[in-house]
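Internal QA ticket QA-208
Title: Verify multi-chain structure generation after dependency bump
Assignee: T.L.

Test input:
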Amino acid sequence: MNADLHCHSCHSDGVLTPAALAARASANDVELWSLTDHDNVDGLDEARAHAHRLGMQFVDGVEVSVSWQGVTVHVVGLAFDPSNVALNEGLARVRGGRDARAMRMAEALERLGVRDAYVSAMRHAGNPALVGRSHFARVLVEQGYASDVHAVFRNYLVPGRPGYVEHSWTTLAQAVTWIHGAGGVAVIAHPGRYRLSGAQIEQLFREFRALGGIGIEVISGSHGDAEVLTFARLARAFGFYASQASDFHAPDESAVDLGRCARLPDDVEPIWRAPELADLIACST
Ligand code: AMP
Ligand code: MN
Ligand code: MN
Ligand code: MN
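Actual output:
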């Protein structure tokens, strides 16, 4: 199945509109697609309408920012009701911290010589409420601090680097509760990307499973071959469904194009077999 269950539009830190993403997904032969913008659901109506017009299955999605043991962890919600009030209020609360964080990031970057950091980042932010590190990364590339956004992240925008500021998002339990309250399922995004030891990852997975989380991304644009094997093994060990996703943001930035991610290994259970997704897909065919 050519499924791609995690990507971003201009409603968060991607650069394409939901309609343009739908066209790109369709051109790349995606059969099952989800748009999962950070901390908001604003692009879903447009994405769903275009997906259906182009004959693709669509699952509503979101990527919620969580702080777990001082580390930022992303939880993807899938197949929920995007009009659910508690979910929307919760996401508004998570977004609410972003502007003050952006101002602190701008101050830190301006101390390094970056010019007009806040205003410049806002120019990149299609949705000012969703201003984030990717928008600052694009400013630093423009001003010649690095040749691409990946180098900016390595040198400036991650813990221990001078442009990084601490921020507290929401809790793992709260994010999962919002997703479940809206009828959806919760998936740990790109587990290979966190600065966590093997023991910590297993603790995260145990807590997540106890909260009712059912899946982890095994295929992700940020996983190499070794991580695919590791997380396929852990998905089996924990009884998690496995998700498959590019985490596509922008044609010039993302290593893996929308709909061009690797396929899940045979020995894991794909997330689209979970009843919440399988029923939805069956209903729309
Ligand atoms: P924020 O939610 O503002 O903390 O920004 C997180 C976003 O930064 C992620 O969703 C990615 O889009 C981007 N990001 C994080 N790490 C990297 C990296 N190493 N290279 C490129 N983009 C990254
Ligand atoms: Mn992002
Ligand atoms: Mn993420
Ligand atoms: Mn993402």
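Spot checks passed. The domain at 100-156 is CATH 1.10.150.650 (DNA polymerase; domain 1).
Status: verified.
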